[in-house]
Design goal:
The protein is an alpha+beta fold and about 120 residues long. The protein is built from 3 helices and 4 strands, in the order H-E-E-H-E-H-E. The termini are far apart. InterPro entries: NT_sf, Polbeta.
Length: about 120
């Protein structure tokens, strides 16, 4: 005898759709915050990667992963991380791109934010 799972299937699909809406909204928020604060720290390019950059992967335990091209000699890395985290209201992992062994993968698969000077 087969069980009808249509109600469960519908509920799971609705939950996935809700998390996808949240992912898209959070991604937009992160990109907007980078636009607001990153240039003040000398950052001109950053990549959002991980679950936030991949449809269907963002969930209630997700954090926000950002890799930045950090200017040589620039100070304030942790200030930038704290500022972004406060403004988006979520924990973040922010990493300097030149210190990451998988930087090429992030450049290929991540979502690029790039400062366009006015």
């Amino acid at each position: 005898m087969a069980f009808d799972t249509s109600i469960l299937d519908r509920a799971l699909a609705e939950r996935r759709a809700e998390w996808e809406r949240r992912r898209v909204a959070m991604l937009a928020r992160v990109l907007a915050v980078l636009e607001e604060v990153a240039p003040a720290f000398g950052v001109r390019r950053a990549y959002v990667f991980g679950s936030l950059a991949q449809p269907g992967r963002y969930h209630e335990r997700s954090d926000v992963d950002i890799a930045v091209e950090w200017p040589r000699g620039q100070v304030g890395f942790f200030d930038l991380a704290g500022d972004v985290s406060r403004r988006i209201g979520q924990d973040i992992d922010i990493l300097p791109l030149d210190k990451i062994s998988y930087a090429d993968k992030i450049r290929r698969e991540g979502i690029l934010w790039e400062w366009n000077a006015p």
